[in-house]
Sequence to fold (177 residues):
Amino acid sequence: MRKRTVLGFWLLLVALTVALVSATPLRASGGEPPDIIEFETMFPVMGPWLGVANPIRGVNGGGLPWAIDRAEGELQTNGSLKVEVRGLVLADHPMVPEALRLTNPVAEFRALLSCISHDMEGHPTVVNVSTDPFPATPEGDAKIEAMVELPHPCLAPIIFVMTPTGRWLAVTGDMGM
Fold:
């Protein structure tokens, strides 16, 4: 009888340990919170997404076509959002005045996190959370590092780089070229 009690105790201890380990979120190397999304590409505003005609999750695009050389970033489970863009500038496009082509006329960019979540009644809804503005160079370079209030749940996250007035210039995704 005592052997069964000891065996039962050890089995219970193993089961509790497995349950506790399973319920603990995994951590990335160095003890950092796990990433919700990590990206190495962004799509610049152009074509049908210009202006107010076809907003993405309620966010209108910039009024002129933009181009981007490089982008990367990550959103972690603790709300840490990092976005780095290089060469986010007005496109070399006939719609853009020649003097402004391949320049960034915006002194600051913001990042915006868009998630599908739910309201108090449990109905699906879009939740958009913005950072404060961060400096951007005339060459279109910026580094955004901020803590954002994550909606719970945060499904299908999208990251935008925006003007301070709320128009998106680049969004997570790929041009497929």
Observations:
- Residues 6-28 have pLDDT under 50 and may be disordered.
- Helices lie at 2-23.
- Residues 33-172 form one domain.
- The two ends are 71 Å apart (CA to CA).
